[in-house]
Write a sequence for this structure.
């Protein structure tokens, strides 16, 4: 038997299929999120990868920002619960989970038994989220994936003084105009996300082990800046971007087995 | 004798020259603010207009965001004090002054004798400031000055649900893409500034008469939306954009006459 988790995010759709032993059989990611065919496409891709037909999936759970519009699931589970479950399955020592996504950022406290006890979320302000990085990458005419490489080249990181994305945009433009090096500007950008996000983290407090999931976890620059800002090492589960979908797949498994723990 | 007030803002520089009776002799506005030659240019323009040489100005007071870098003043006075003084001289019944500028927004309480007793300011977030309008006008390929005309044509104002400028930008783009009329989208934009700004106003409270100064006061759309939001009429002094510079000129006069009241 197999179980499907679908994470319909704001900018990407992800799927994970697991088997009866809760081992990952396949994963897919499509860079189209809510309001698109992204989730359908991601489902087809993962099924093809695993070699399973849709009707042979025992249970499907949808999560993420766009889970409500996903047509074809047995249950919908909040993305917070799914992220926690996904990460806890990979890193059982995780006690704090930070997640910076395409347009929000969250911090969650996790108990020894994997239950979420407290959380803080920013989904109102683009600063401190992946959206800030997107805006800045566009100005720099870089792909977001290129920011990490630039960050680690920086010798003299620039300093962004505004917290607002819009005002920071102007600062970055004038830094570039006044000849600051691209890598230094990128380091300032990553630092800005880290600083802004750290203030959210402080509202929940940190108990180690600190884990990070979500799209921005791939960005080693932000991760490095955040480790320095928080003074703690960050453990990234493998495939950090898929933790929501993995959690959803685990909920699908639990649904099938009559164990439900939100 | 004549007195010069210079308001070096973030996006514009303004000058006002008054005479010994505190009557306005001339005004100038240059659309270059801090970090440019804008203030020097504005000074030359107003002097030429009035027909007075620089050395014949008895006293000069600089105000605004960029007052510290203005080289040639007898005193610097905060923009809050100057705005209050300028507006109070034109509208003596003013008890609350709201000012939405190019990249900040303020609310001030004024006593019967023209003293500022309380204020709130937002200079951290572009939402609810003129900057929000600039960003949106650029998306619409309109000049900011054209927004008012569009606003009053709207039959079915669009609704922006995000408070963040960056997220609102995406909303506006998809509203336009889904065929919403430009005037309706503009109405939604003006409403968004009003709603966001109203929450700042509420922190100070409103005592009528309510006055408005600053660059955005020219935008009848935002003014109308704000009147509806606050349920109160807004009185705009003539030349609302020059109130800071006028206040500075009045401080120059007071300095000359040994009366100083901040
Ligand atoms: S501070 Fe800037 S990025 Fe944050 S909500 Fe305001 S406009 Fe958006």
């Amino acid at each position: 038997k197999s179980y499907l988790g679908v994470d319909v995010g704001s900018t990407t759709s992800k799927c994970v299929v697991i088997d009866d032993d809760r081992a990952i059989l396949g994963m897919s990611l499509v860079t189209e999120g809510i309001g698109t065919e992204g989730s359908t496409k991601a489902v087809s891709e993962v099924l093809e990868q695993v070699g399973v037909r849709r009707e042979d999936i025992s249970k499907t759970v949808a999560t993420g920002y766009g889970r409500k519009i996903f047509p074809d699931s047995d249950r919908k589970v909040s993305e917070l619960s799914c992220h926690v479950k996904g990460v806890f399955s990979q890193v059982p020592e995780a006690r704090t989970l930070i997640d910076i996504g395409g347009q929000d950022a969250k911090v969650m406290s996790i108990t020894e038994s994997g239950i979420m006890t407290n959380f803080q979320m920013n989904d109102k302000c683009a600063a401190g989220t992946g959206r800030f990085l997107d805006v800045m990458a566009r100005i720099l005419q870089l792909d977001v994936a290129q920011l990490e490489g630039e960050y680690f080249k920086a010798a003299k990181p620039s300093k962004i003084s505004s917290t607002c994305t819009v005002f920071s945009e102007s600062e970055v433009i004038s830094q570039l105009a006044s000849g600051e090096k691209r890598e230094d500007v990128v380091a300032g950008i990553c630092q800005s996300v880290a600083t802004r996000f750290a203030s959210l983290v402080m509202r929940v407090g940190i108990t180690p082990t600190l884990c990070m999931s979500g799209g921005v976890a791939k960005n080693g620059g932000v991760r490095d800046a955040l480790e320095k800002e928080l003074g703690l090492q960050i453990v990234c589960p493998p495939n950090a971007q898929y933790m929501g979908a993995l959690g959803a797949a685990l909920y699908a498994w639990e649904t099938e087995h009559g164990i439900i723990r939100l």
